[in-house]
Amino acid sequence: MVKKKGIKWVVKRDGMYWPSEAMKKSANMSDSKIYSKSMKNPVAFWEGLAREGLTWEKEWESKNAYVEKLPYFEWFKGGKINFSVNCVDRHMGNSSRTALIWVPEPVDEKPIILTYGELYNKVNRFANVLKKYNVKKGDIVSIYLPMVPEALIAMLACARIGAIHSVVFSAFSADALKARIQDAEAKILITSDGYYRRGKPESLIKKAKSAIKKTTIKNVIVVDRIGKKVRGKMFKDFETEMADVDSYAKPEIMNSEDPLFILYTSGTTGKPKGVVHDTGGYAAQAYWTCKWNFDLKPEDTMWCTADVGWITGHTYAFYGPLLTGATSLVYEGGPDFPNPGRWWKIIQDHKVNIFYTAPTAIRMFMNINQNWIKKYDLSSLRVLGTVGEPIDKVSWMWYFNTIGGGRCPIIDTWWQTETGGTLINTLAGVGPFVPTISGKSFPGLSHKIVNEEGHSVKKGNKGFLVQQSPFAPSMLHGVFKNHKKYVDTYWKKYKTMYDTSDGAYMDRGLIRITGRTDDVMKVAGHRLSTAELENAIHDNSLVLDVAVVSMPDKIKGEAPIAFVVLKSGKASKNLEKKLKSYVDSKIGPTARPRRIFFVADLPKTRSGKIMRRILKALLVNEEPKGLMTLVNPESVAKIDLILQGQNILKK
Ligand code: WT7
Fold first, then answer.
1. CA of 492 to the centre of ligand 1 (A)
2. CA nearest 309: which of 590, 535, 513?
3. Range of 357's domain?
4. 293 CB less than 6 Å from ligand 1?
5. What CATH number is associated with residue 102?
6. What mean pLDDT is predicted for residues 103-107?
7. Pocket test for ligand 1, best of 307, 386, 416, 523 (most atoms within 8 A of CB)
8. From the CB of 305, is ligand 1 less than 6 Å away?
9. What's residue 270's pLDDT?
10. Mind listing the pLDDT tens digit for each residue in 230-247?
11. For 154, 202, 217, 312, which has the most beta carbons within 10 A of its beta carbon?
C-alpha cells in the first residue's frame, strides 16, 4: 500500500465522516448553526449573501428582494447587475491570477493558461464581435462548442452585452441542434470546425452546417480547432474577428431577473424544453455553493469534469469558479486518452484542489487497473464532489479511499438543470459525509418528502421530494415560450411546492435521493427521456411502434433498450445497426439504445397505453405483473422468448 500524503481533511466518528480540525479552521463555512440561523428569515439571509458575494450596479429595494406570484417568483427584483463584470472585471485588481487552465487532449499540445486579465480582454473583444453582427440585448445566441476556452469566452461575451446564450452539447446531432436553434430563434451560431476525441480529430462543422439550413441563423463564427478550412459567406473565423475589433465593450446593465441563459433539457414529453435562468439569483447561488459546498477559495484550482453542454458545466466548470475568483481547469478530451491515467496525471500536474465528477466516471475508473491511478500524486486534493445520479456505497468508498486517499470529504450534490445550482448536499466545513446520502438543503432553502397528496410522509419513509417557498434564487424562471409546460411539469401536482420528480427519504436527519420517479433516465449521468427517444425512433419510416425502457448498467447506471414493431423491413442485426445510427442522427450517440429488439406487438392496455413496466420486468428477469389489464397478454410471452438466450444483463 502506498503511503498517502497530504493533509487529513476528515475524521471518522460514529460511522460517519466529519470535517477535521484543519478543515474546520480553514473552511469558508464551518458553523453548523448556519441552517437554523438562515431559516429564521431566508429572504434576508439570501439578501445578505447576494450583497456580500456579488457586485451590483444598483441594489434592489428590500421589499422586492423576493417577489412570489406562483408559479413564478423573482429574486432581487429591481437590482441592477452585469454577470460578466462579476466573473471577470471585479477580479482585475489581481489580473495576473489564473482564471482558466485549459488542457488539450493531444499530449504534445501545451495547456493554455488564461489570466483574468487575458480573459477580460478576450471577453470584451468577443462582445464587440457579437455587436458587429448585430446581436443585441435580449437576443439569443446558440453556442455549439466542445470544451475549448472559446466556449467560456463566447458565453461571457453574451452576458456582457445582455444577450442570452443557449449552449447545445457538441455530441448532439445536427437535428437536435436545429430543433434548439429553431425554438430559440437564434440569429447567430458559435461553433468550431471540430475537436479531438480519443486521439482523432472529429468534425463538428458538418453537423453545424446541416443544422442551420432553413433557420434564423444569419452568421456563424467558427473556432479553428482542427485546422479544417471552412468556406462560405456566412462563416467567419473566430480569431480573425477578434483581432478586428475594439478591446473594450461596455457592460450592459441588466435587471437581476433578466434571463442569462437558456439550456434545453429532457422532460417526460418528446420535445426538450428550454429552461430559462435569470441573472442575479443564479449568480448568488453559483457563488455561494462554490464557497460553502466545495470550500472554494481564490487560490484554489477546481476541476469539474462536466461538459459545458450540461448545467454542471455551466455552473461549476465555468461560472462558479470565476465568480469566486478561483482557477477553473477544463480538459478537452476523453478520460482514457492516451491511457487511463490521464485524469490523475492532470490532477498531479496542475495541483487540482477541488475535483467534481459523476458516479458513472467513478464506476468506470473502479474497473480499470488501479496502478493507473496509484502512480500519481493526488495529495493536492482537498474536496471531492459527485453529481448526476445516486452513488452506491461501494463507489463512494472507492472514490473516498482511492482518489481522496481517505483524507477528503465527498460532497454528494443533488440538483437539476432546473435548479441552476446545487440544492441538497453537505458543506465541506460542516459535515457529516455519509456514503449514498446527499445531506441537507443548502442554508436558506428547504425541502420536504411528501406523498401523492403533498402531505409529509413519516420520517424514514420513501416519498416524493419537493422544494418549499422561498424557492432557491437559482431556480428556473419558466420554460422558454411554454408557460403550460412549466406549470404542468413543476407545479401541477403540488401547486405551492416545486415538484422535483425525484424520490427520497430521510436517514439520520439527512436526505437520501432514490432517483427519478418519472420516465426520465440517467444514462452515464446524461438526462434522457423515454418519450424523446421513442419519438426519434418513431420518425423512421420503417417503424410502426416503439417502446423504450431502461435497464441497469454497471458503469452507465442505466442503458436504454428499445422494442420496435416494424412497418416494413426484416428484423436483422443490420437493421438494428441502422436504427441505432438513426438515433445518432436524430439526437446523438449519448441516446443510442444499447439493444433494439424487433417484436410483433407491444404490451398495451385497453386504452392503448404501452406497459413499459412489463417490458422492464422481462429485461431484468422478473415476473411481469398486471398482465390482466392488457388487451394483448400473448405479446408478453413472445417478447420473453425473443429476450431469452440474449444474455442482455451480462453485456
Ligand atoms: C436529475 C437532474 C444537476 C447536475 C446534473 C444533473 C439526478 C442529480 C444527484 C445526486 C442522486 C441525482 C436526479 C435529478 N441527480 N444529482 N447527487 N444524487 N440523484 O442534472 O441532467 O438536470 O438531472 O439528476 O434524478 O432530478 P440533470
1. 21
2. 590
3. 10-82+256-510
4. no
5. 3.40.50.12780
6. 97
7. 416
8. no
9. 73
10. 999 999 999 999 999 999
11. 154
